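Record passed on here:
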Amino acid sequence: QTTNEDNEKKGAVDKTHCSSNVSVEENHEEKKISSSSSSSSSSSSSSKESEKAKANTNTGGLSSRHRHLMVGEMFIYNGIQFRVMKCEPSDGYIRPQSLIYCKGEALDDVKALSLQPVYESLPNHHKYIKSEQFRSEYVAPFFKGRFRFIDHPRELDIDGVRVVVRRTTPAAGIVTELTSIDIQPCIRADEAHQKQEEEDLEMARRLQLEEDEPSNSSGLIYLHPRQEFCCCSLFFFFIERGGGGGERKGNMCYTCTYMYMC
């Protein structure tokens, strides 16, 4: 009996030793698995960081949030369409340090536009091109879907062809699909230059007549739309006219009952 009991005790001890060995081995395996997973995750994160650094190096530190703009480009923000009128340099990425400002009134749509190609600038096989053919081969591809800005007077360069802008309604705006475009017959370069000089002289004469008009009896100043006055010039102008003195307050000029601001 003693021998049997001793054998049973030895067997129990052997079993406990086996179970302890298994548990230890399992723990070692778990440690190996956890260490391998942590090393793989660290390697993947380091690879991701290296990829990000490489991407930043290739793009100059820019991310997808940086927007590229250029002069003449149109973009829509909050349902409002904007046009880049000026950009220094002419194109580049918008950064937090970029200065963005809006100046002037909203651009109008051009209702009517009259164009006239210059004969000398046309290719030899298009010297005697008809108006409708010029519209389909030059004008339509140039304007369609581009939202181009037009002001008068100016010249356009359409695929190497000089095109004179004869008339725009209004004087400046965006050409859309609803713009009525009139194509006039070709004109010689010297004739186009002469017409441009005549238009410039007529405009100068009209401006001179407007500036020479006498002021009205109420003593108000006649301001031409092209003239710009700051508050200081208005202030001293009223002083010289004897318009009741004048009191300057900050960046505003008060004379009589009228207020002008810079």
Observations:
- Residues 62-106 form one domain.
- The two ends are 117 Å apart (CA to CA).
- The longest strand covers residues 161-169.
- The chain has a mean pLDDT of 70.
